[in-house]
Amino acid sequence: MDISEFRRTGHELVDWMADYLRDVERLPVTPDVQPGDIRRSLPAAPPQVAEPASQLMNDFGRLILPGMTHWGHPGFFAYFPSSASPPSMLAEMLTATIGAQCMSWQTSPAATELEQVTMDWLRQMLRLPDDFTGVIQDTSSTATLVALLTARERATGFAASIHGLQDVQGRLVVYTSRERHSSVDKAVRLAGYGIEFLRLVDLDGNFAMRPEALAAAMATDIAAGFVPAAVVATTGTTGTTAIDPLRAIGEISRRHNAWFHIDASYAGTAAILPEKRWILDGVELADSFVFNPHKWMLVNFDCSAYFVKDVDALLRTFSASPEYLRTAHDAEVANFRDWGIQLGRRFRALKLWWVIKSYGVEGIQAIIRQHCDWAQQVAGWIREDERFELMAPVPLALVCFRLRPREGEDLAAINERNKELLTRVNATRQVYLSHTALDGRYTIRMAIGARATELRHVQEAWSLISSSA
Amino acid sequence: MDISEFRRTGHELVDWMADYLRDVERLPVTPDVQPGDIRRSLPAAPPQVAEPASQLMNDFGRLILPGMTHWGHPGFFAYFPSSASPPSMLAEMLTATIGAQCMSWQTSPAATELEQVTMDWLRQMLRLPDDFTGVIQDTSSTATLVALLTARERATGFAASIHGLQDVQGRLVVYTSRERHSSVDKAVRLAGYGIEFLRLVDLDGNFAMRPEALAAAMATDIAAGFVPAAVVATTGTTGTTAIDPLRAIGEISRRHNAWFHIDASYAGTAAILPEKRWILDGVELADSFVFNPHKWMLVNFDCSAYFVKDVDALLRTFSASPEYLRTAHDAEVANFRDWGIQLGRRFRALKLWWVIKSYGVEGIQAIIRQHCDWAQQVAGWIREDERFELMAPVPLALVCFRLRPREGEDLAAINERNKELLTRVNATRQVYLSHTALDGRYTIRMAIGARATELRHVQEAWSLISSSA
Predict the structure, then answer these.
(1) Residue A331 and which of A13, A319, A368, B73 are 20 to 30 A apart at CA?
(2) By three-state DSSP, how is residue A31 classified?
(3) ipTM, 2 decimals?
(4) Does any domain span residue B82?
(5) Total count of domains within chain A
(6) Candidate from B56, B141, B325 with C-beta closest to A182
(7) pTM for this one?
């Protein structure tokens, strides 16, 4: 592909992109395909000779697009939606073209320093403590693993990575709540703690961790000779956006010298609103903190903001400096390859920079505030409708609800009715919602946060749910 | 940013991208900046109000671009260059716009199935065994960690992730060569084996692992009651592209039931050439294999191709299925969140698909073959020039050389002279080369592989080195 073909195809693509953003709401949000449909439509063997650019675009539109779930669709209310914004998409064009490899300062000086600057902007926007230093990770799964590996090393005096975890005396234990994200379990397993040594602390009536239950669990373990290594609290659980009480949890963690990690993957963005900053009350007690600008802060996936207090502990856990990576400036700069798992790193700071500049802090605040307001409206409609009930508080922009049980209806029956409702609503392919289970009760989740979603889409979604009920 | 501003800015960006690709060779390959220069040029606090798109582009050109190392510059011969191609850059535009979250089939059916299809294309292109199944990881660092975690679990009957590695009897040991990549050390530390239990096996005269030394190391450990858990061989070491003898290493690994992982990050791409396929002789004995299409196969970073034989072992190590991620199709489909560390995954298969279609297998072969030919030419020039000496064989497209020691010159002096030469050459900012140490000998590395590099750039680089010597 020569420059002129690249230029021509690029312009066609930009028009396609703009048309897609304009028209996506007319597409079904989820595709009508069965497992294997797409695969069977593609050649089993790779093409031996080059195909023209026109065919690439044509095949994409014909074979791939009809099989996509449209995460940017305004009717996307499932999981936590993606708020990827036009400026972040444009920034990815530059990132792809420059193709910088951001493993060390030397291999990408401006990218490294822009990452330092934008991460500090985020720190200020969330009013995180001065002694937090930021680095971009790809996802929260990775960030939580990074936190639990650093915790493991600190708890063992950095011996596990040298002599092996098998050599360590005193069983290490990790604490989190019953409503934590699955990535905590995964990180506990991968870091070698063993899932049996993950304590799932009990919840209060709002699905948040009970600090007294945490303290009790720790006391029991310490009496048994175990070592509390880490506590993972969640600000905005995936199930219901419950807010764990950080200050109380942080104080207990400190008392026992356990690494205190806060998973605010989704909810962290809301802390840029002064009226929502309370969700991070006590964050200064944390050893590490993660939130995802790629979830709700208008940044394209992937971009996970990880903050850490003890940078030295992080570096002792992750640094590796073979001869072929050494450079003259190593002593004076941040080499972000030493701040996480991957050596190779994309230039993710660019899209973060563009999004913050393009919206301004006030512009981002206005959008997040709107999402929260709309969620309150939905909650209001549910409260006014006797057929439904709210299943959890609505502190942010996720509404958890279900059809109310009929008199004498057992759990299996009401769960089945709600499952049928969700299936019926999603089958329209006009909206996409997901579910969770709360104490065994099937619960429908409506998460507002896709960038294209407007109030009318929220209203239409509720009409659809209401008429399907 | 509304649709019309997005469209207008997008078109401007495409012209910038095309101009950049056309003109990048006129830029200095590395920037003339000191640590802190860029950071000081940026505001310490985030902007409160929105800035227009024109300012984003302007600030990028004014503040960031002059501080970038240009990985797509035809004079980039350092590390292993990036071969990111125009079609892969275009594909990233679609990926960014669609913003699919490829964690499960349900959340991205076409993306999941396109990943299965393109990974099988790669398997065919490299003539990997039929029983290898592929999944895209972000980087080789991650892939090698995935391999060593799976190895840890298999070696412990999947007990480490349940009861904890602290509970496991029989010390687990990992084997690799002295010239392995640093990501192996990092993975050994992170997976909890402990770096003391990574055996660095001796090399032959070509910097490849000596199988007899591996067998001897294993015998010693087994006699001591240790358990060989994994062996990591390298096809194309970072230092010199040495090719470890896979068949002999694989047979030894099998004999002791150790997980056999092959790191072909850079060199794997060369195996699509029939005349280079020998580098993978014995690959069928491997349990896992990784190579990076983002390094030498014209694909944009990041895209690492990980192949595994025992998918069940991988899934038992990495799967996590909480209620809110369960879908109706789970039993029939691949949910790639269970195939690695991250839950969230970008739609990386799209660029792989576009690159393979855009070049065809023959087109990719022609480019790789050219790079290897040019490396032979450089090696020839070095052989003919008495001032220089080759430091290692040149099986692929990396040439390792140095100024030949003068009579009686000690190691420190000759190292210093070579370091000075490299510094002088790189200071022109017309080319960028890196170095390594081979048995303590400072060695200059010239890696050919940037997509924009033509023979004339290789010739000019050699003229510059020669005249600087």
Answers:
(1) B73
(2) coil
(3) 0.97
(4) yes
(5) 2
(6) B325
(7) 0.97
